[in-house]
Design a protein that fits this description.
Elements lengths: L3 E5 L4 H12 L4 E5 H4 L3 H11 L1 H4 L5 H4 L3 H8 L4 H6 L8 E3 L4 E3 L3 H8 L1
Parallel strand pairs: 1-2
Antiparallel strand pairs: 1-3, 3-4
């Protein structure tokens, strides 16, 4: 089976719930912290192509609220890659990549379906 990677920020409550679920379910996974491990343009571009910017960008985040109007406008017009690389906390968390499928967010029933 492909290696599963969970992307997020270690102090995010939703990421903690996802990690706990994976551990309780016995899923072998690697954790990649946006802040300490960074993100490549290629990876973020692949997520944007797979998930779309509407699913990937967290417009309810403090980071979004602190962006300038020009930055928000840039994102609304689809130029979101550089913004996400510059502000990785704009990415909805967690992003999970099973090697076969990429999903964003955490819901226990979705994870159960993904891994069983």
């Amino acid at each position: 089976m492909a290696t599963t990677t969970l992307y997020g920020i270690k102090n995010c409550d939703t990421v903690k719930k996802a990690r706990r679920w994976l551990e309780d379910a016995g899923v072998n996974y690697a954790f990649h912290d946006f802040r300490s491990d960074g993100l490549s343009a290629e990876l973020v571009q692949a997520w944007l192509e797979t998930l779309g910017s509407a699913a990937l960008v967290n417009k309810r985040s403090t980071t979004w609220k602190n962006l300038t109007d020009a930055q928000k406008q840039q994102a609304e017009q689809g130029d979101v890659l550089n913004l996400l690389l510059e502000h990785p906390t704009l990415i909805k968390r967690p992003v999970i990549d099973t090697g076969n499928q990429v999903q964003v967010g955490f819901k226990a029933d979705q994870y159960a379906e993904l891994f069983h």
